[in-house]
Amino acid sequence: MGSGFLGYPPSTLMLDVVVSALVLVVPILLFSLYLVKVRKNYTVHRNVQLLLAVVLLIAVVLFEIDIRLHGGWEKIVDQPAGRLTPERMATIRQTLYVHLVFAFSTPVLWGATIAGALRRFANPPVPAPHSGVHKVLGWASVIDLTLTSVTGLVFYYFAFVVK
Ligand code: HEM
Prior knowledge:
Blueprint: H1 13-37, H2 42-69, H3 73-77, H4 86-120, H5 131-161
Helix pairs in contact: 1-2, 1-5, 4-5
The structure holds protoporphyrin IX containing FE.
């Protein structure tokens, strides 16, 4: 317990890895959008998105295993047992539930965006009839992922940073 590297025990190593990834995701997304809108470099845009998806998928799977191995999120957060009042636990639980709305919808939207793009754009990718659908799915994914990141950080803040 408390093997995190950000200096907020009782956070774990994988919780800190995922929280750091959540911070990094937003600038990487902005870079990917810059590649499309300014540089019109669709191939690098595709590669950045695919790399981001694979790295996040691996991090989240390891994170879920880590949480289970530590006996669940409530046990990690309330360490040593009884550290947090029931009211504080309730607040943290609420922030987690809000986070989960975005954390569950993001992989679905993102997966649909990637699957559609890989199927319907040429290789190397260039604007095509699929562009209209892709722009809508793409922006929805960007917003959803950003909200996943922000709400994940809010959860971490209430669970570990606030004393
Ligand atoms: C979930 C992953 C992805 C997201 C979030 C995403 C996001 C976006 C967004 C928001 C735009 C529109 C920019 C604008 O408003 O002009 C865009 C454009 C584009 N993306 Fe993606 N993208 C993703 C994956 C991919 C993949 C995997 C490919 C290629 C196989 C691809 C190819 C393109 C192309 C060709 C355009 C230009 C469309 C046009 O302007 O006509 N994208 N992307």
